[in-house]
Structures are given as structure tokens and as C-alpha cells.
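Re: the 395-residue chain
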Amino acid sequence: MKNYDLIVIGGGPMGLATAYQASLRGKKTLVLEQFGFLNNQGSSAGASRQFRLQYAEKYMAELALASQDFWSQLQRYSQHTLVERCGSLWFGDPKLSSQEGGIEAAENVMKTLNIPFRKLSAANIEKEFSFKDLPPTYTGFFQPDGGIINLKATEEVLYNQCLASGLVDLFAWQKVTGLNNDVENEILVSTECEEYQCSKLAITTGPYVNNVMEKLDLKVPIDIWQMSSAYFKKTDPNLYLPTWFVFQEQQSTSLFYGFPEVDWSHPGYLRVATDFPDHGIIKNPSQRSLAPSSKSLALDSQWVNQHMQGLEATPHFTSTCLIALSEDPAKELLLDYLPKEKTNNKNIVVYSAGWAGKFIPILGDMINQMLYEDITEFNYRGYQIALKNFSINWK
């Protein structure tokens, strides 16, 4: 029997961030990953994610502001720029909202927190950012602190810092087959070839969460989206965009977002992605298709052709990823202990759902605080962010 202070199930960026933060606290930690590390099987598929400060919820904007400190700390250990600050552009119908929030609500929160932004009309957006043929009623804003996250460089630096600590074991191809939490402060984790013991457990398996939770007779209420993205070749060498998101007429296939050109992912091309599931909502990752939906790619290409200048409309380097989202649209992130009736409930923390790439470094700290401190709120930069904001309505 191999003993650890903490076992982390799930070796994606959230699991690696949790292990890294545990190593800073001197905890002997094991990370179990069912695939290889740095894989593209789940939420960390793809090369980039958007970083932004604007949210419709004040506590989420506060968390985004606080996350910048953790990104700065992590940046010291990487030769690559982890977050390239190119700004964040939101535009479209100001009355609409989506899984990403809404323009007017985000503007109100930014005013409250003194986050700088510049309001834009449709004509301003077309002139400054090379979009075209936008409805004249569209409005938007530009927030200069937004940017693009180099996702794989972030995973790599977390992986390397875990190794460098001498306190973290990283075991790939270790699918968890059993969990036993019947004895207080003693949790047994079984894989196909080994059994481990720990006093604390973090489950950070993203869309695969319920494959693990079923071993504890629990279920996290999530929807799983398979999402497509593609890269489009620049025809204008001077074209440069910030990260952007468009809020359009509220239909199931009308939301799009994009990224600037970067030298670490298909230089000469810009990534444009659809913000809706390829084949409707799925409930198990086994239902995923690695091939992008032809319908999604066609809609992506159509948006580029109709509303973007300086790009060819043919999709290249297409890919998919899996995103777990809360069934309750009011919940941005799901992060909680096991239910009170479960033995060891305060010794086991589960993170699953949300658009959380921008929170990778800080979430590792949040999970460790929950495991090693008696807290009801997180305190960062003077903000008090209640833990109940992230609670799970267990099934």
C-alpha cells in the first residue's frame, strides 16, 4: 500500500495545478491520469483559451482579477508567455446573454469593480477590428486586460514544477477502478494495477467526473458539450485581432468567438470557434466524436465569410474538445465537498464544470484551501468570495 497526503484523480491542468499548490504546502501528492499527460481527450484539448476579466457576476470578475496574481507567479517558471494580453472584445445584441454572460451585465460589473473598458458602436467595431456587415444596433466594448492563454505551455509548466518539487508522483494510464471512503481520514483509491491510500482526495476529471463519482454512488449535474473549432488563413498580413465573442440572436447555433494569430499555434492563421455543442448535449464522454461536426464547421465558415475581413473562409486544422457545464445555468463553476452524509466529506473535494481555463492556477489554490483549511469563503485581493457560489446540487 502506497501512502500519500493527497491523491488527485485527473491529470489535466486543474489536477496539475492542484498538485503543484499541494507541493508548495509540503504535501506528498499523487496524480492519477487515465490517459497520458498533456492529452487532448477532454477539456484541455486544443492550444488556446480566452482570458477575460468581464463577467455578469461580480464574484466571478473578482476571481478573474485575483487569478492574475497566480498567473504571474506561474509565469516565472516558463520561457513561454502563458497569457498574451491582446485585449478582449465583446459585441453583439446588448440585451442578449449566453453561457458566457451578457454585454450589459458585464459592463455594470466592470463599472462596480473599476475594471477599465471602452464602449463601442457597430461602426467602431467594423472600423477598428476588421469585422463587416454587422447589424447597426450592435454595441460592444473592448477590455484591454483580456488575452489568449497558451494552454499547453500552462500544462507543461505545471507538470514540470510538480516534478521539480520532488513531492509529486505523476502516474499516467492509471484509470481509477475503485474508491473507499468508509474510514475517517483514510481513503483508498484503486486502479487496474495498484492500490493507494491518502487522507485527502481531489477529483478534477472534468467531463469524466461522473465516471469517478459513480464509485461513491453520487452524480454531479453536468451537461457535456463537444465543441468544434478551426483555423482560417490570413489574406491580409496586417490583420490583428484581440480575443472576441459575439452575442447574436438567441438561437442554438448563433454564437461564435475567436483568437488572434499566435506564433505557437498555426502562425498565419486565426482560430474561430463555435460556442454551441456539435450534436446536442451529451451525458457521457464515450459519446464524443473526435471529428468535428460538418454542420458546425459550415456555420463557422459562413460566419467568417459574412462578417470577417482579411481571412479565407475555408476551415483548416479542425479539432474538438469536451466541455463540462453545470445543468444549472446560474452556476459558473462547480467546486464542492462531498455531501455531509458521506464519510470523509470534508476530506474530498470535487471540481468539474465551467469555462475555467482562465482560473487554472488559482483553482489549484482554492482546492487546497478547502482541503487543508476550515473555510466558507476565499479571500483574494481583499475580495470575499463565498464557497457556496460554487456548490454542487448532488444527485
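The first strand starts at residue 2 and ends at 9.
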